[in-house]
Design a protein that fits this description.
With 263 residues, this protein is mainly beta. It has one domain. It contains one helix and 17 strands. Strand 16 and strand 17 form a beta hairpin. The longest helix is centred in the N-terminal third of the chain and has 19 residues. It starts with a helix and ends with a strand. The relative contact order is 0.22.
Length: 263
């Protein structure tokens, strides 16, 4: 997985550097756009550290694997149901200057779920007992899910390059780079004690994204892209006064529909 991420990161950097290197004058008006779409995610393994002095545990699980839940089988019946699967939105402003560039609010509602049955290395203390061994991770021991969202919020700077232009149709490559915060709502069970948590600011992240936009009649577009991110969840709330900390890399495929307006 890491080798694949490195190869994709190299491709993404080449893609973004190509978009950022545009030097042709861009004479369009200032524009604003909005994209709504869906995402599919893959995660690197993570080391999960849990601690709570009042509950007498302080341990780390090494090499924990996780997956997402895009809910391809889900059929929405109302407007509010469109936010149940993994979704993404983008709100961007294109500057009125000599290059295709701007800033963007970038949000991804992704779900992070640790695999329910896996062997990991446990190191630390639980109820004054010391552990340093491989253990089978089951839902009776630990359930840990950002299922109401790992929730990536970024502010991106972007540059674009037109690949194909006709009066009523164009294709544009767009490269983005940004940083932001993670605001999860975590469903966690430790030692059979359960907590469906609240939304809270838990850490930070950085990301790179490359998109291809197909624009029709100067306003409507479809878009597909690939995002790479590094996420640091420094303070995930768990049961009692405890917290969890983990970092992971994420790769995300995004596709969506959008509308842009000039002013």
């Amino acid at each position: 997985m890491l080798r694949l991420l490195y190869l994709i990161l190299l491709f993404e950097l080449l893609f973004i550097s190509s978009a950022f290197s545009q030097d042709e004058p861009y004479k369009e008006k200032r524009r604003v756009y909005f994209t709504w779409g869906w995402n599919k995610d893959w995660f690197t393994k993570s080391n999960l550290h849990f601690s709570d002095p009042t509950w007498s545990y302080n341990f780390t699980l090494y090499g924990v694997s996780a997956h997402d839940n895009p809910r391809y089988d889900y059929v929405p019946t109302g407007l509010e149901d469109f936010s149940i699967p993994q979704y993404s939105y983008r709100l961007g402003w294109l500057f009125k200057n000599q290059s295709y560039s701007g800033i963007e609010i970038n949000f991804d509602h992704a779900k992070y779920i640790i695999d329910s049955v896996q062997t990991v290395h446990l190191k630390g203390t639980i109820d004054e007992s010391v552990f340093d061994q491989d253990t089978l991770l089951t839902k009776e021991f630990l359930k840990f899910e950002h299922t109401n969202g790992a929730n990536f919020y970024l502010i991106n700077y972007f540059r674009g390059k037109d690949l194909f232009v006709r009066p009523k149709f164009s294709i544009t490559a767009i490269g983005k780079a940004g940083a932001g915060v993670v605001v999860p709502k975590t469903d966690v069970t430790i030692f059979t004690y359960h907590l469906d948590n609240r939304y809270h600011l838990a850490g930070w992240m950085v990301g790179l994204e490359g998109d291809i936009r197909f624009l029709f009649w100067s306003h409507l577009y479809v878009e597909g892209g690939l995002k790479l991110a590094y996420c640091d969840y420094m303070n995930v709330l768990v049961i009692g006064d405890g917290n969890a900390h983990h970092t992971f890399g994420a790769m995300e495929a995004i596709w969506g529909l959008g509308y842009q307006a000039a002013f």
